[in-house]
Design goal:
129 residues, alpha+beta, Ybab, Chain: A, three-stranded antiparallel sheet
Length: 129
Amino acid sequence: MGRTLDAVSKDHNGPTVGQQPSVPCIAEGVQAFVKRMIEIGESAKPLRRALGPASVRVESDGGEVAVIVTLGGALIGVDFSDAHEAVEDMELVQLILATYHRALAEAERRRAELSDATPELPGIASTEG
C-alpha cells in the first residue's frame, strides 16, 4: 500500500498537513523545479522543435523566464535566462505563473485567429456548437 502524506512529509523534512512551508523549504523547491525544468528542456529540444509551429513562447518582461505552450494550452517548456538567478525565489514563482498565464492567453488568441482564418471545408461538420 502507498505511504501516507505524513510519512512523505517526514521523509523530506517539509511541512505536514496544515502547516505552512518554511522559506527554506520553498527555496529548495523552487531551485529543484528550475533545475528539473532545465534538464527536461534539454532532453525535449527535438520535440519542442517539432511542435514549434503549433506552440507559443512568451517571455517575462525582464526576460528572466520564458514559457512555451502548445496552441491547445499544454505546457511544453520553461526556459530560464541567466537573469533568473538575480530574482528572489517567490518572485520567480510569480514570474513563471504570470508568464504561463500570458502564454495561455496568447495561445487562445492565436487559436481563435486560426479558426477565423480557416474556412469550413465542404462535407465536414463544424466542431463548434
